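sorry for the late reply, my laptop died twice this morning and i had to redo everyting from scratch. anyway the thing you sent over, i finally got around to it. pasting the sequence first so we're on the same page, its 158 residues, then the predicted structure underneath. double check i copied it right bc i was rushing
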Amino acid sequence: MEITITMLLAAIVISITYTAYTIISKSYLGFTNKNKEMTEAVQLDKLLKNDFYKASLISRDNQKILFRIDSTDIRYEFAPDRVTRTQGITDTFKIQTETMSTSFDHQPLQDDPQATDRPGLLDEMEWKIILQNQKIPYHYHKPYSSVNLFQENPDANH
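ok and here's the structure:
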C-alpha cells in the first residue's frame, strides 16, 4: 500500500512538473516570436529611414520603390506578407503590410508614371504594417535639393 501511494505521489509530481514546463515553454516561445516580429519591423524602419535620408532620387513603379544612392540602386518590393530589400544581397522582412501611398510635392503618384513630368519620382511615402494584430502607420519624407531635381533639357536653346 505504501508503494502505491508513493507511486501515485510521484505520478502527480511528474504531471505537475510537465504541465508547468509546457506552460513556461509556450510562454517563452510566444515572447520570442513577438520579439522577432518587433525586431524585423524596427530593422526595416531603420533601413527605410536611412535610405530616404541618403538617396539622391527615389522613384516608384507599382509596388516597387527604387532608391538611387550615389551609383548604387536599392530596391524595395512591397507584398502583402513581406517586404524585400535588394542591394547586392536580398533581405526579406516577413511583415504584413496593408496600404501604401506615395506622393511628390503633395500630389499623389498616378498609376501611369508617364503622366507626369517626373515619372514615378516621390518625396513622401505612407504605409501601414500589421504587427501583433495592430495597424501601425509609418511616414517617410525626402527633402530634395535643387541639384537633385534639376533636369537638363538637351533641346533647350542656349
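The radius of gyration is 26 Å.
thats about all i looked at so far, will dig more tmrw
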